[in-house]
What we know:
The chain is of the alpha+beta class. About 30% of the residues lie in helices and about 30% in strands. It has helices at about 15-25, 80-90, 125-150; strands at about 30, 35-45, 45-55, 60-70, 75, 95-100, 105-115. This is Bacterial sensory transduction regulator family protein.
Amino acid sequence: xxxxxxxxxxxxxxxxxxxxxxxxxxxxxxxxxxxxxxxxxxxxxxxxxxxxxxxxxxxxxxxxxxxxxxxxxxxxxxxxxxxxxxxxxxxxxxxxxxxxxxxxxxxxxxxxxxxxxxxxxxxxxxxxxxxxxxxxxxxxxxxxxxxxxxxxxxxxxxxxxxx
Length: 163
C-alpha cells in the first residue's frame, strides 16, 4: 500500500491528515483519549517540548496545537511570566502564550496554543505549513522564556531516553 496523497482541491480535517503530517515529519507519536488527539515530544535543544495536536470533539472543524515545556515555573514568577506572555502575544500571532496554574500551588505553567477553524477542504501542504509555523513559534517562545524565568540551562537529561 502506498502513501495516500491529498487531492489537489484538498481534504477535510481528519485524523488521517494529522497522522500523515506526523509520519511525513518522522515523529513518533501517541494517540490520545479520543480519536482526534495526538501527542509527541519535540526535541528543541536543550529542552523537550510536549506537543498535543487535536481535533475538537465538540467542533470537528477546529484544530488545536498546544505546546508545553517538560517543566513548570516557580509560582513566584507568575507576574513576570504573564508580562512576558502579554508582550509575546502583541508581537507574535503564530501561537498565543498562556500562563496557567498547576496542581502544585508552588508552580505555574506556560502553554503555546494555536487554534484554526478549518470548515472545508485543506491541502496537505497548507496544513503542514501551518503546523510547522506554530511549532517553530513555540520553540522560539520557550527559547526566549528560559532566560526570563531565570531557569538554569540543563546540562544532562533528568531521565534517560526510553526510545
